[in-house]
C-alpha cells in the first residue's frame, strides 16, 4: 500500500519521475532565423481528426517566446543514441545546436534526421498550463525511422522494447 504524503513540489517531482514516458526534442526557427529547441517528456497525441499532438514547454524556458510565436515546429521522438542531445536541449544556457546532429528539414526547420519519429506540426492552439504552455500542433507530415525510441523513467534513459514492425 502506498503512503499518502504531502503534495509539495519535491514529492510531486518524485512522483512524476516514476511515470515512464517518451522523450521528445522539439525544434523551430524564430523570426530572426535562429534555431530554437527544447526537450520534453510531456507529449501525447490529442486527436486523429484532425491529427493533433501536444507538447508542454516551461514558461521560463529560453525558447518560450519563440515557440509562442512559431507557426511550425518539429517534434522528434528521441532514440537511445540521442540521450546527450536530449540532456543538452534540457539544459538552460547550453548551445543546443552545437555539433552536426541537425540538418535542414524540407520545411527549413532543424531536423534530427536519425530520430525514430519526426512530426512536422503547424500551430493549432496554445493554452496556459500553470508554469508551462501547452502547444497543440496539427501534424502535417510524419517521418518514420529505424531506431527504437527511448523511455525516460526514474531520471534514467532506457531503450524501449522493439515492436517487431518493419
TrEMBL record:
Entry's family note: Belongs to the non-flavoprotein flavin reductase family.
Pfam families named in the record: Flavin_Reduct
A GO biological process held by the record: pyrimidine nucleobase catabolic process
Keyword Transit peptide: no
Gene Ontology MF: a single term: riboflavin reductase (NADPH) activity
PANTHER family noted in UniProt: FLAVIN REDUCTASE (PTHR30466), FMN REDUCTASE (NADH) RUTF (PTHR30466:SF1)
Keyword entries, A-Z: Oxidoreductase
InterPro entries: Flavin_Rdtase-like_dom (IPR002563), NADH-dep_flavin_reductase (IPR050268), Split_barrel_FMN-bd (IPR012349)
Name of the protein described by the UniProt record: Putative NADH-dependent flavin oxidoreductase
Annotated Flavin reductase like domain residues: 16-159
